[in-house]
Every structure is written in structure tokens, then in C-alpha cells.
Design goal:
Blueprint: H1 2-20, E1 25-28, H2 35-41, E2 47-50, E3 53-56, E4 59-62, E5 66-68, E6 75-78, E7 89-92, E8 96-98, E9 101-103, E10 114-116, E11 122-124, E12 127-129, E13 136-139, E14 148-150, E15 153-155, E16 162-165, E17 172-174, E18 177-179, E19 184-189, E20 195-197, E21 200-202, E22 206-211, E23 215-219, E24 222-224, E25 231-234, E26 238-242, E27 245-247, E28 254-256, E29 261-265, E30 268-270, E31 277-280, E32 284-288, E33 291-293, E34 298-303, E35 306-310, E36 313-315, E37 324-326, H3 329-333, E38 349-354, E39 357-361, E40 364-366, E41 369-370, E42 376-379, H4 408-411
Parallel strand pairs: 1-2, 2-5, 3-6, 4-7, 5-8, 6-9, 7-10, 8-11, 9-12, 10-13, 11-14, 12-15, 13-16, 14-17, 15-18, 16-19, 17-20, 18-21, 19-22, 20-23, 21-24, 22-25, 23-26, 24-27, 25-28, 26-29, 27-30, 28-31, 29-32, 30-33, 31-34, 32-35, 33-36, 34-38, 35-39, 36-40, 38-41, 39-42
Antiparallel strand pairs: 37-40
């Protein structure tokens, strides 16, 4: 009898608990005067649905609450302009943010439009635009912060589009349009290790920057028409740069500088205005299976640095017919480094070495080659060359992190094509406030 009663009691408890834990939907402004009021009264798992309109609030989006707008084109969240310049949305933990335009943040420093300091929020289908400083800031020196940032437009911000800072900042930034931001499209610093994958990153100050011991993984992006360098890796930064198209940037395609390191694999790096790839000032690079072309300068430049260069096509756009080599530089040309002027030329070229160590094999070189007496050329034997890009061993910058599931109801908000791009505000670039009535 006692066992039957215990089973009945446990079953009743489960039924009551399941009812109590059933997620609710809280409607703004139909049921609640403000978005923050609804967030504060929501329980974990609840969703706050916001009707079309302009909302002047600075929010704290708490762990386990989901904030759902009616679409970025009709639901606008902007700085209330009262008090300190706080983030428009300060995200504290796991949650969903979708369907908003987030604009008009006026703060500098940590006054980003969206601030994330811990947890794995899912940020999708938003327009983060025309803020005075950074669009999305991911800061974590203590707590694991691994947001999934997918299918957003991040544009016209006065700082970076997306900034990653701190040892535990491990964002996944995928399938976004990131453009017309005054600083970097994506900035990585202070040991951050984001995955930046399949984005379109253009018309920013620079495309993707990795510096100050950051370890960025940059894969399958379109990085083009940025006002300076496509991908700068500087000040001790590290990066894996793989399968990207880095095209038509105003200076250099990829720059590795100031004791930095990069693994540059299977990219198309062409039509940049100056150099294709530069490795400088104590930096190191592993460069394999790329197509690299010069603009007005050099396709591949090494200056006081070292690089292993395997199975690439490296050529000058402007003097392609001067020297053409099939295969490794040392094997095919039998270059005599003691007489560098023999192979030096004025103007743009395929390869320039200055006080550097160049280990090479299996490359196709087209254009002038410029050498100095202080560089060392080493031949990599044919049997040691990688057969294909997949066998190249890369450093483990990121630990595998389980990604949040995309719920079916979220997909209903993903109705706008990414490349249907709105323009930044013309009235005040990087800092536009909708006026209060």
C-alpha cells in the first residue's frame, strides 16, 4: 500500500512540476508597459514577444529568457539617453535575442549596443547598426562566453562591428553581413578565440583583426573592399586563415606583423591594392595551397621573418612574364643568393625576401623575385610536401563547444535575405539616435 501511495505521489509531483515549468509568453506592450518589466517578471524558459514600434530602453536580458521582436525592420530598440551610456542590451547568460534593430548606443568603452559577459546566448536575425561605438561586444576574462551569432546585419557602427575580448571569449560568428563599421568588421584581442565562418565582411576599416595574443579561426568568409587591410594579425596575435576569399582590399590582403603567427591555407588572395601577403618583424607563417597575387606591389613579402611556403600559386599581376617558375623556387630557378641583383627588379613582383628564412616547395611563381644577401632559402623535399590541404596539421586554438539548437519557431523570424542590405545612416555615420517624440 505504501509503495502504491509513493508511486502516486511521485506521479502527481511530476505532473504539477511539468505544469509549473511550462513556458509562458509575455507580450509587450499589450500586457506589460516595458520590455524590462516583462523580462524581470519572466521565469526561465519564458519568451517576451515585442510588438512593432520604437522602444527607448536599456535592458538586462537575464539568463534563460528569450526576447523576440516582430522583425528587425519594424521593431527598433534604442538608447533611452538617460543616465550613464550603458549598453542597450546587457546579456547575462543563455537566452535568445531575435527580430530587432538595435541602434543609437551612445557609450564609449564598454558601452556597446549589445554586451555579452557570460553564457551562450543565441543572437539571430537582428540589425545592429549606427551605434557610437561597437555593435556587439563579447568580453570574458572569467566566465566562458560562447555566443552563437548567426544571420545578423552589423553595420555603420563607430567602433568594431563585433569585438571579442578575453581568454574565455569563444564566440561562433557565422553567416552574417558585417559592413561599413569604422574600425574592424570583427576585432579579436586579449586571448579571445572566436570562430568566424561564412560571413560577408566588407567596407570596414579593416576586415578581421587578430591581435594581443588572440587566436582567431577565420574560415570561408568573403573579406573584400575594406578600407585598409583585409586580415591584419598583429601585436602577438595568432590566426588560422582558411578557405577565404580576400579580395579588393585597399592595402594588403593579409598582414602578419609584430611577432605574430598565422596558418594561411587554401585562400584566394587577389586584387588587393598593395601586397597580397606580408610577413614582417619577427612573425611566422605557414602558407600552403593558396592563390596569391600582387596589386601594385608584391604578392608575397617576407621582411625579418620566417615562413614555410608550400604548393601555392604566387604571381605578379603586372609583370607575370618576367620570370615564370613551375615548381619550387630553389629547385626550378637554381637561384644564386650571392647575386641577388640577377633576379631583382623594379616595381611589383611575385616574391620579396629581406633578412628572412624562406622554406619552400611545390610552388608556382610568376613575376619578379627580389632577394637580399641576408635571407636564407631552404628547400622542402618533395616527399615532405602535403598532398592536399586536409592533411595540414593546424594548432588547436578552440575546444569543441556544443552549439545551441535552433528552435523551429526561431526560423519563422528568418525571412529576410542577408544580401538585401540597408545602408548606414547618412545623417551621422556611426552614431544615429532616433529622436524621441
Amino acid at each position: 500500500m505504501f509503495e502504491k501511495f509513493k508511486i502516486f505521489f511521485l506521479s502527481l509531483t511530476l505532473i504539477l512540476c511539468s505544469g509549473a515549468l511550462e513556458a509562458k509568453i509575455l507580450y509587450v506592450p499589450q500586457e506589460y508597459e516595458s520590455i524590462q518589466q516583462a523580462i524581470d517578471l519572466a521565469d526561465r524558459g519564458d519568451s517576451i514577444k515585442v510588438a512593432p514600434g520604437v522602444y527607448y530602453e536599456n535592458l538586462i536580458l537575464r539568463d534563460g529568457r528569450n526576447l523576440v521582436g516582430s522583425g528587425a525592420d519594424v521593431t527598433i530598440l534604442t538608447d533611452d539617453r538617460d543616465g550613464a551610456p550603458d549598453p542597450i542590451i546587457d546579456i547575462d547568460g543563455n537566452c535568445l535575442l531575435t527580430g530587432f534593430t538595435i541602434t543609437g548606443a551612445r557609450g564609449a568603452g564598454v558601452g556597446h549596443a549589445i554586451m555579452i559577459t557570460r553564457g551562450g546566448p543565441f543572437i539571430t536575425d537582428n540589425w545592429i547598426c549606427d551605434n557610437c561605438y561597437t555593435g556587439i561586444g563579447i568580453h570574458s576574462e572569467t566566465f566562458l562566453t560562447n555566443p552563437l551569432i548567426v544571420h545578423n546585419k552589423v553595420y555603420g557602427n563607430g567602433g568594431a562591428g563585433i569585438a571579442n575580448l578575453g581568454e574565455f571569449s569563444r564566440a561562433i560568428i557565422r553567416d552574417n553581413d558585417i559592413y561599413s563599421n569604422a574600425n574592424a568588421g570583427v576585432a579579436c584581442t586579449d586571448n579571445a578565440s572566436p570562430l568566424i565562418e561564412n560571413n560577408r565582411i566588407f567596407n570596414n576599416g579593416v576586415g578581421v583583426a587578430s591581435k594581443d595574443s588572440a587566436k582567431a579561426v577565420i574560415v570561408e568568409n568573403m573579406i573584400y573592399r575594406n578600407k585598409l587591410t583585409g586580415v591584419p594579425v598583429v601585436k602577438g596575435g595568432k590566426a588560422i586563415i582558411r578557405k577565404n576569399q580576400i579580395i579588393d582590399n585597399t592595402t594588403v590582403g593579409i598582414s602578419v606583423d609584430e611577432n605574430s603567427e598565422a596558418w594561411i591555407i587554401e585562400n584566394k588572395i587577389v586584387d588587393n591594392a598593395a601586397d597580397g601577403v606580408t610577413i614582417k618583424r619577427g612573425s611566422k607563417a605557414y602558407i600552403a595551397f593558396n592563390q596569391i597575387a600582387s596589386g601594385i606591389s608584391v604578392a608575397l613579402e617576407l621582411n625579418a621573418s620566417q615562413a614555410t611556403v608550400l604548393r601555392n600559386e604566387i604571381f605578379s599581376r603586372l609583370n607575370l612574364n618576367q620570370i615564370i617558375m613551375e615548381g619550387d623556387l630553389l629547385e626550378s630557378a637554381k637561384l644564386d643568393v650571392s647575386d641577388p641583383h640577377k633576379y631583382s627588379g623594379l616595381g611589383p613582383g611575385a616574391l620579396s625576401l629581406r633578412e628572412s628564412t624562406y622554406s619552400a616547395g611545390g610552388n608556382k611563381i610568376g613575376g619578379w623575385i627580389d632577394l637580399d644577401r641576408y635571407s636564407t632559402i631552404k628547400r622542402v623535399p618533395a616527399e615532405d610536401l602535403p598532398l592536399n590541404p586536409e592533411v595540414v596539421e593546424l594548432p588547436p586554438f578552440r575546444k569543441e563547444i556544443k552549439e545551441p539548437e535552433i528552435l523551429p519557431e526561431v526560423l519563422l523570424h528568418q525571412s529576410q535575405e542577408l544580401l538585401n542590405l540597408p545602408a548606414p545612416s547618412k545623417s551621422f555615420f556611426g552614431c544615429f539616435w532616433p529622436f524621441k517624440p
